[in-house]
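Protocol step 6 of 9: fold each sequence in the batch and record its C-alpha cells directly after the sequence line. For illustration, a two-sequence batch is reproduced in full.

Sequence one:
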Amino acid sequence: MSVTNFPNGVSSFGNILTGDNFGLMGGRIAATGDAKHYYVDPANGSDGNTGLSPDKALDTVGAAYDKTVDKSGDVIHLLNDGNTSGTSRDNSTITWSNDNVHLVGHCAPTMLSQRARISPASTVGSIVTPQLNVTGNGNSFRNVALFEGDDQDATASVCVQVTGSRNYFWNVAMMNMGSANSGDEAASANLKLSGAEENTFERCYIGLDTTARSTTNANVELVSSSTRNFFLDCFFPMTADAATPMFIKIDAANDIDRFVYFRGCMFYNAIGSSATTINQVASIHAAAGGLVLLDYCSSVGATEWETTASTNLYLNMPIADSAEPAGGTMTVSST
C-alpha cells in the first residue's frame, strides 16, 4: 500500500496527514486503534459514498457523523475549496451524541469565516436551531465555521448548543443571528451551554457583527447549572441597534455552578459602524450559583461590565475601573 498520495495531498495508508495528528494547532486527538477517518468534500463528494477516502468523500458532515461509532475516536475531515461552494449544507440539526468523536476542518486556520464551513442551504425555508447540538462527552471540534442566516420572523435561533462535558472547541466560528429577524428574538444565542460541564473554547469567534441585534439576546448564554467552563482568547462580536443585547447572559438562579472563566477575551460591539452602545457586557442573576471570572478581558461599545451589581463578577484587569468589579477583584496589577 502506498504511504503517500503526492501530489494529491500527503497521506499515510489513505489518511490525510497534518502536522499534529489531525489536530492542526489545537492539540492531538484521542483516536484509538479502531478509529476510522471519514472525509467530507461538499464541492465534490456525495452522501452515497463510503467517505473512507478523499476520493470517496461524503457531501455533508451530518452524513459522515451518522457513520461514526460511539467512543471510537473516529475523525471527520471537512475538506474545502476555499470558497462558499465548499460549505457542508446540513439542513437539519447535527446532534453529536457520541463520545470521543472529532471534527477537523482542513482549511486555512483563519479565526473568522473559515471555509471549512457548515451552513443550511438558503432554500431550506426554516431556521436550523441549534445547528450543532453537542450532547456527547470528550469530543473535539477544530478549525470550522458554522453560520445561520435564514430570515424568519418570530423564530429564535441558537448556533451551537452544548449539554455534554469535557468537549474542546479550537478556532471554531459560531455565527448566528445573521438576519435582523432572529436578532430581534430574546432567546437567540450564538452559543448556549445547558448543564454543560468542563468544556473549553479556545481561540473561538462567537458572534456576528454584520446584522444588528435589538433585544436581550446574547453571544453566550449559560443555563441549568453549567459549571467550570473555560473561554480562552475568544472574540465575541456584535452590532447592536438597542442598548439591551449582551455578550454574556446568566439570567436565572443556579444557571452556573462554581465558575465560568474568560481569559484574554474581547467583547466587541461595532460602535465604529454606528452601532448603539449597550448597557452591559454581562447580565448575571444575583443568585446565579457561581462566579464569572474575567481575566485580562476587554470590551468595546458597552457602558458597564454590569449595570446592577450581582456580587458574582470578578475582574482581573491592567487598570481597575473605579465602578467595578461588582463582586471584588482577583489580583489587580497596575502595569
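Sequence two, same batch, same settings:
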Amino acid sequence: MKNYYYYDEKECQFIPVNYGPVERVVYTLGLWVLVGTVITTLSLSLLSFSVGSPSEIALKAENRALYEQLQQTRSSIEHLDEQISMIANMDNEMYRTILGIDPLSDDERQAGIGGADIYARFDAYSDPSSDLLRWTASNLESIERRINIQKLSFKEIKAHYNQNKELMSNIPAIRPVSGIILSGFGMRRHPVLGYNRMHEGVDFRARVGTPVYATGDGVVKSARRWRTYGLLLVIDHGHGYETRYAHLSRLADGIRPGVTVERGQIVAQSGNSGVTSGPHLHYEVVKNGRPVDPLNYMFADLTPDEYIEYRRIADSNPMSMD
C-alpha cells in the first residue's frame, strides 16, 4: 500500500499516515468491493442493453413462438385453400355440368375486393411478421368469401335438382360396383393387343360374380355378347344418356331388352368375358352419342376425398384392363 500524508498546520509539514494491520485489511477489502460493484453495474448495464432485461427476453421468446405458430397456420391455410379449390372444380365439372347450369368463373368464385389497404395496421411490425400477418389475414378472408360463394352455389344446385327430379333419377350418378378404380378414361395401352387406343370408360376391380348395379333409372336397350366387350349390357336412361357394362359373367334374372330398371338395382354380375387381362368391370357413360368420363357421373356416392383418390388412380395408370 502506498503511503498517504496529511498537512500539520502547527508543524507546517506533511506527516505520513500510519495504518495498522486491521485498518489496512478493511481499506483493501472496501476498495475491492467498490471496484467490484462498479464493474458489476457496468456489466449488467451492457448486458441489458445488448440482450435485454428478463422481461424483454421472455417477450422475445414469446414472439418467436407466435411467429412459428403463424408459419404453421400458413401451412394449414394453404391446405384448406387446395381443398376448397378441389370442391370448386367438382362443383363446376360434375354438379353444374351434369345439371346444365353454367359453371362459375374463377373471378366469381374469388369475389375479390378493392379499395383502401385494409391491412395497413400490420405495417407497424417488423417486415417478416408484417408480411406473414398480411398474408394470413388476406387468405383467411378470401377463404371465407369462397366458402360463402360455394354455399350459394350448392343452394342453386339443390333448387335446380328439386325442379328436375325426374332427370336426376335417370342420370347415372353412382358407382356400378363397390370395387376400386383400376384405370381411367382416355388414351390407354391395351394389355392384350399391345397398342394405345381410346379407353372410353373406367375399369373397376371386381371378382367374377360381383353384383353390378344400374347407376340410374332407365330401360334395358340391349343385353348380348358384343365383340371385345364380351357380355355387354346397355341401359338407356333417356335425356341423351346411356350406360354400358362390359365383360359380364351373367345377367340378373329378368334383365332383357325393354325391361325398366331403377338406380341401385342389381342388373348383372361382373366377369372376364371378351378380350381382357383379368376379371373386372368395364363401365361407360355415353351422352348424346359420345363417351364421357364416368368419374364425373358418380357424384351421388363419392365424397370429395374419394373423388380425388379415384381421379389420382385413374390418371396415373397408363394401361387399361381391356
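Proceed to step 7 once all outputs are recorded. Observation for sequence two: The helical segments are 21-50, 54-99, 106-110, 127-163, 165-170, 304-316.
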